[in-house]
């Protein structure tokens, strides 16, 4: 049975140490339980690194082929669930290297780490992993946007109140409301794509902090691993986690937008509004109230935004005081990143399902429209008659006050009452009181008129398809 001292010596750093490792310290230090999800990225990076060692003359062709063969067998073990974790496997990097040496022997397997440190290895693995995950999340986001664009295009007839301060303001189209949220997500899509180039910066070849002395071809590594650029400073390359902080910030902002969408839909789904109905697939019931249909999917989307932001805030506090190059604090980068990627991926797919399956209730939307929401249209009417807007605003406000005093809609005021308010009013003032016409008059770019809804949809689809 191996002693605790032997256990320490088996670690990659064990040669310097003669004392044994406190078992609690080993557990506190190891990260394999969560970083094993990067097994494929680690193996991909190691195979590429073996090719650089071959070119540098550290490995011969047979050794490089044997390392590649062994690493692919290790990858298969992870993929099919047969990989057996050893007690002294600290992380995915040591686990893979240990298993590789068991398969092909230490004489060859031990050469793989030549000129490489776990510092540049882990930074490379995380970037490879995040590059792949970013493309997946991008797909989920474009799927959501496509569903939103399709609904907006096909449900353009529905007119509903637009709100400010959660008070009825002016009539708009349901499509306009939906596309207002789509605009935020389209900006998120642009930001996600734009940060990819900062994720795709190769650290491998930087070693611990001072580069490697073997003349390893980092351009070859870049090409093998499909990175867009190479880290220019080895000290920065091993310690840079800005790409993680930026991704966490991106996730926090995107989930902020998700939360606001969820809040609108939660409100619209209440009996008091009744504008939409969530499908049963994304709703739950009450344990004691059979009549309840709760929008739990939307509430979870709203709630998850706090979780994601918490991961960002925690990680920023972790890195804010770290001195130059690699420090063990940086091991705290993985769990918040993994959690946020998982949360965001699930949230986008749930949101897509909610939007794709909800039912709108145009009749309830129309019932919520009231004539006082056309008060601005009264002001616009007078502007077209040559009255300064500040004066028209005052006159329109007086018409609303008069209707409230009489207990009627402003459209019920008589022509005599309109003329008392301003001699500019003529019989055609009654044409103002049409919600569809009100919306259609707002046909400048960005407005809710039909032609502008179609323009928004077309522009949105172009943004989705941009690469």
UniProtKB/TrEMBL annotation:
<dbReference type="InterPro" id="IPR008948">
    <property type="entry name" value="L-Aspartase-like"/>
</dbReference>
<dbReference type="InterPro" id="IPR020557">
    <property type="entry name" value="Fumarate_lyase_CS"/>
</dbReference>
<dbReference type="Pfam" id="PF14698">
    <property type="entry name" value="ASL_C2"/>
</dbReference>
<dbReference type="InterPro" id="IPR000362">
    <property type="entry name" value="Fumarate_lyase_fam"/>
</dbReference>
<dbReference type="InterPro" id="IPR029419">
    <property type="entry name" value="Arg_succ_lyase_C"/>
</dbReference>
<feature type="domain" description="Argininosuccinate lyase C-terminal">
    <location>
        <begin position="373"/>
        <end position="440"/>
    </location>
</feature>
<dbReference type="InterPro" id="IPR024083">
    <property type="entry name" value="Fumarase/histidase_N"/>
</dbReference>
<dbReference type="GO" id="GO:0005829">
    <property type="term" value="C:cytosol"/>
</dbReference>
<dbReference type="InterPro" id="IPR022761">
    <property type="entry name" value="Fumarate_lyase_N"/>
</dbReference>
<protein>
    <recommendedName>
        <fullName>Argininosuccinate lyase</fullName>
        <ecNumber>4.3.2.1</ecNumber>
    </recommendedName>
</protein>
<comment type="pathway">
    <text>Amino-acid biosynthesis; L-arginine biosynthesis; L-arginine from L-ornithine and carbamoyl phosphate: step 3/3.</text>
</comment>
<comment type="similarity">
    <text>Belongs to the lyase 1 family. Argininosuccinate lyase subfamily.</text>
</comment>
<dbReference type="GO" id="GO:0042450">
    <property type="term" value="P:L-arginine biosynthetic process via ornithine"/>
</dbReference>
<dbReference type="InterPro" id="IPR009049">
    <property type="entry name" value="Argininosuccinate_lyase"/>
</dbReference>
<feature type="domain" description="Fumarate lyase N-terminal">
    <location>
        <begin position="15"/>
        <end position="310"/>
    </location>
</feature>
<dbReference type="Pfam" id="PF00206">
    <property type="entry name" value="Lyase_1"/>
</dbReference>
<dbReference type="GO" id="GO:0004056">
    <property type="term" value="F:argininosuccinate lyase activity"/>
</dbReference>
């Amino acid at each position: 049975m191996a002693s605790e001292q032997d256990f320490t010596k088996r670690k990659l750093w064990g040669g310097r140490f003669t004392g044994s490792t406190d078992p609690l310290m080993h557990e506190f230090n190891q990260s394999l339980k969560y970083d094993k999800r990067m097994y494929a990225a680690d193996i991909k990076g190691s195979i590429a690194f073996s090719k650089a060692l071959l070119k540098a003359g550290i490995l011969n062709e047979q050794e490089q082929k044997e390392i590649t063969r062994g690493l692919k067998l290790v990858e298969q073990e992870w993929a099919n669930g047969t990989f057996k974790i050893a007690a002294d496997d600290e992380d995915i990097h040591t686990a893979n290297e240990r298993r590789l040496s068991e398969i092909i022997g230490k004489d060859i397997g031990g050469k793989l780490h030549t000129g490489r440190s776990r510092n540049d290895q882990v930074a490379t693995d995380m970037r490879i992993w995040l590059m792949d995950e970013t493309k997946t999340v991008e797909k989920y986001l474009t799927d959501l946007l496509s569903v939103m664009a399709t609904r907006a295009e096909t449900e353009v007839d529905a007119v509903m109140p637009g709100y400010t301060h959660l008070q009825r303001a002016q009539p708009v189209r349901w499509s306009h409301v939906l596309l207002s949220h789509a605009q935020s997500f389209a900006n998120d899509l642009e930001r996600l794509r734009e940060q990819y180039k900062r994720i795709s910066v190769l650290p491998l070849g930087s070693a611990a902090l001072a580069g490697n002395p073997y003349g390893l071809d980092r351009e070859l590594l870049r090409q093998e691993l499909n990175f867009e650029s190479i880290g220019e400073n080895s000290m920065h390359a091993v310690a840079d986690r800005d790409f993680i902080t930026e991704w966490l910030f991106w996730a926090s902002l995107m989930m902020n937008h998700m939360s606001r969408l969820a809040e609108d839909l939660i409100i619209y789904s209440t009996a008091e509004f009744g504008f939409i109905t969530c499908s049963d697939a994304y709703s739950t019931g009450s344990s004691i109230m059979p009549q309840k249909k709760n929008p739990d999917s939307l509430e979870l989307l709203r709630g998850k935004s706090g979780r994601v932001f918490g991961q960002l805030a925690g990680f920023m506090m972790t890195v804010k005081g770290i001195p130059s190059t690699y420090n063990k604090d940086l091991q705290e980068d993985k769990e918040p990143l993994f959690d946020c990627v998982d949360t965001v991926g699930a949230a986008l797919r749930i949101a897509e399902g909610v939007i794709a399956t909800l039912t709108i209730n145009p009749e309830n939307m129309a019932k919520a429209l009231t004539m006082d929401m056309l008060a601005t249209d009264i002001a616009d009417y007078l502007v077209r008659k040559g009255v300064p807007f500040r004066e028209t605003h005052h006159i329109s406000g007086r018409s609303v006050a008069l209707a409230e005093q009489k207990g009627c809609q402003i459209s019920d005021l008589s022509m005599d009452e309109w003329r008392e308010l301003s001699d500019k009013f003529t019989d055609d003032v009654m044409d103002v009181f049409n919600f569809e016409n009100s919306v259609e008059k707002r046909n400048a770019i960005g407005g809710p008129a039909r032609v502008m809804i179609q323009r928004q949809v077309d522009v949105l689809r172009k943004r989705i398809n941009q690469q």
